[in-house]
TrEMBL record:
Binding site for Fe cation: H132
Highest taxon of source: Bacteria
Listed name of the protein: Transcriptional regulator
UniProt: Zn(2+) binding residues: C100, C103, C140, C143
InterPro entries from the UniProt entry: FUR, Fur_C, WH-like_DNA-bd_sf, WH_DNA-bd_sf
Any single biological process term in GO: negative regulation of DNA-templated transcription
Pfam assignment, any one: FUR
Cofactor entry: Mn(2+); Fe(2+); Zn(2+)
Keywords: DNA-binding, Iron, Metal-binding, Repressor, Transcription, Transcription regulation, Zinc
Species assigned in the record: Sinobaca qinghaiensis
Length: 165
């Protein structure tokens, strides 16, 4: 965690930004909740626990800055809410998401898997791919097995859920 914060600090410094205590608190919340897909408001509520004086506008500006510096990615799962997702270090492209239409859980696929598709797009459309967003909608393995699991096990973590229409 401290090493990643150091690296993020260096990324900020290289663009002449400082890792102020408010920015650091925001980065820590993102690192601590790396599995989740938090909205600006979710991040704000968690940062407030560490830094009660912080305002939503400051958190929002920090998230936008981190997005600009490609430290976080912004994603929308179709519920109209922008969510902030830490970019995996060293990943050339954004990871993929599996959104369950029954329980709303979001799982991640870190492998790009799109090598062949990207080749076709680059060749046939003469398009230089920089990044992509890929969200699969379907029924997760937990919901498929819901009958065999106990109630407690099939309840996903609330914060990782999105409302899907
Ligand atoms: Zn993600
Ligand atoms: Zn890719
Ligand atoms: Zn599910």
């Amino acid at each position: 965690m401290e090493q990643r914060i150091d690296r993020i600090k260096n990324q900020l410094h290289s663009k002449s930004y400082k890792l102020t205590p408010q920015r650091e608190a925001t980065v820590r919340v993102l690192l601590e909740n790396e599995e989740d897909h938090l909205s600006a408001e979710d991040v704000y509520l968690l940062v407030k626990e560490k830094a009660p004086e912080i305002g939503l506008a400051t958190v929002y500006r920090t998230l936008e800055l981190l997005n600009e510096l490609e430290i976080v990615d912004k994603i929308n799962f179709g519920d109209g809410v922008s969510r902030y997702d830490l970019r995996k270090e060293g990943a050339a492209h954004f990871h993929h998401h599996l959104v369950c239409i029954e329980c709303g859980t979001v799982d991640e696929i870190q492998d790009d898997l799109l090598g062949e598709v990207e080749k076709v797009v680059e060749k046939d459309w003469n398009f230089k791919i920089k990044d992509h967003r890929l969200t699969f909608h379907g029924v997760c393995h937990r919901c498929q097995n819901a009958g065999e699991e106990s109630e407690a096990e099939k309840k996903p973590k609330k914060r990782n859920q999105v409302k899907v229409r």
